[in-house]
Amino acid sequence: MSNLLQAFSKLSGFALFLLLEVICFALIIRFNSYQQQVALSSANKYMGNLSETADEFEDYLHLNEEVERLRAEVARLRTQEGNAMYRDLDTTYASFDTVAQHFIYIDADVVSKTFLGRRNFITLNRGKKHGVEPHMGVVDDQGIVGVVRSASNYHSRVMTIFHPDARISAKLKGTGLFGSLTWDPDEQDYFHMILQDIPTHHTPDIGDTVMTSGYSILFPPDIMIGKIDDITKKPGASSHFIQVKLTNDLRAIRYAYAIKNLMKNDLSELEEE
Amino acid sequence: MEGIVANVLRCVFFYLLQVLFLKRLSTGWEGFFYWNVLFYPLFILLLPFRTPRSLLLLIAFAFGLLIDMAYDSPGVHASALVFTAYMRDVIIKLDWMVPRDGYKITSTPTIRDLGLPWFLRYLSILLACHVVFYFTMEVFVPAQILEILQKSFFTYILSMVFILIYMLIFRPSQ
């Protein structure tokens, strides 16, 4: 005991004061339920904030993974949508429906893109190994992108809609009217396309929605393309000249979905005959 | 030796006074008033100047814990009393507290040795330290500063009255 006292007396007054206060503080928190509660709840608050911040940071680290996972999810969900299905109505017997898969979405990263001249291509990091083949339509989450021109094992080259050869079959939503969508390479306008072949007996309004028609093997029906921006009627012509503002901005594109048409061979068989 | 005996007796007397009488007094008024007479710090205040600083702190700690046992609040009174004991050394060394010819080695911090004005300054500062520290520990939430100050104010006034009455009646010399 006297050794202990001696040890204490060797401490400076301030150090001893601090030591005793720390002991008191420990006693207060340990044995007083009210103060203990206060201490615990404030500790929880700060630790809670801290771990929340850490969680947020960790989320940020996993962001790429998460985006990839979500894209796979989007591809899966779009594959399940109605416009990716082929409805097989059997009329021979009783009326029972069977639904067959018609389109499959394959998600891909855009690994290179150039939007400069008349012929604009992008490259995707998915190829034959993943089921990507030439003559497949490509879309992104807001609109259409283009058509696969060639595919290697792991990559594919996509002719975008900003190409003089691109012709997309498009319809006016809510009408049966359809036409073909092209891009004017001389204008170099990356926000608009021209919808041709809409007959003049119907006058669409500005702001009407333009969607894929589903009449080509490239795209399922009812994929958003854009809205009508401007309509001109050339004298003597039998169709409108419609300018369509695209919903997506291809120059900012980072990922896309290639669309595999499972009934392509079925259709081409017809053409061969 | 005489001084030690006197202080031990005073320690016992103050302890019993605080625990048996003043504690009941304050609980009887709970809900109406914040007052809560803290008389026992006077024991630390009256210890002689020659008490070594570390011994002073340890006595304060032990005495505080004894009070806490009765109040069932381990550490709350002890922490305040340790703080008061530490501040006692700081206060008596302040320039305007030291008497013109310094402290005598044998003197005690009492009215008889150093006069009423000196003792009033000494008591008012240290009691304020004690009371505010005590209620800070009791309320324990710094954000409730208003409650701390309110409780401190009433307790301070009442404790001051009790201690001064004691000092003027008994005029302790050791």
What are the key terms here?
A: 2 domains; 6-stranded antiparallel barrel; 6-stranded antiparallel β-barrel; B: 174 residues; mainly alpha; 7 helices; 71% helix
What can you tell me about this protein's structure?
The complex is a heterodimer of chains A (273) and B (174). Chain A is of the alpha+beta class and 273 residues long. Chain A has 2 domains: 13-61, no CATH class; 105-272, Rod shape-determining protein MreC, domain 1 (Thrombin, subunit H, Beta Barrel). In chain A, 31% of the residues lie in helices and 31% in strands. Chain A has 5 helices and 14 strands. In chain A, a hairpin with a 5-residue loop joins strand 1 and strand 2 (96-101). The N and C termini of chain A lie far apart (110 Å). In chain B, helix 1 packs parallel to helix 3 (53-71), helix 4 packs antiparallel against helix 6 (116-139) and helix 6 runs antiparallel to helix 7. Classes of the chains: A alpha+beta (273), B mainly alpha (174).
Question: Could you give a quick summary of the protein structure above?
Answer:
The complex is a heterodimer of chains A (273) and B (174). With 273 residues, chain A is α+β, with helices and mostly antiparallel strands.
Spell out the blueprint of helices and strands.
The complex is a heterodimer of chains A (273) and B (174).
Chain A: H1 2-10, H2 13-31, H3 33-61, H4 63-80, E1 85-90, E2 96-101, E3 103-113, E4 121-124, E5 137-139, E6 144-151, E7 156-160, E8 168-172, E9 178-182, E10 192-196, E11 209-212, E12 224-232, E13 241-246, E14 255-261, H5 264-272
Antiparallel strand pairs in A: 1-2, 3-4, 3-14, 4-7, 5-6, 5-14, 6-7, 8-9, 8-11, 9-10, 10-13, 11-12, 12-13
Helix pairs in contact in A: 2-3
Chain B: H1 2-28, H2 41-46, H3 53-71, H4 76-92, H5 111-114, H6 116-139, H7 145-170
CATH class of the largest domain in chain A: Mainly Beta
Q: What structural class results from the helix and strand content of chain B?
A: mainly alpha
**Number of structural units classed as domains of chain A:** 2
**Largest sheet geometry of chain A:** 6 strands, antiparallel, barrel
Q: N-to-C SSE series of chain B?
A: HHHHHHH
Helix-residue proportion of chain B: over 70%
- The third-level CATH topology of the largest domain in chain A is Thrombin, subunit H
Strand content of chain A: 25-35%
Give the helix proportion of chain A (percent range): 25-40%
Shape of chain A: elongated
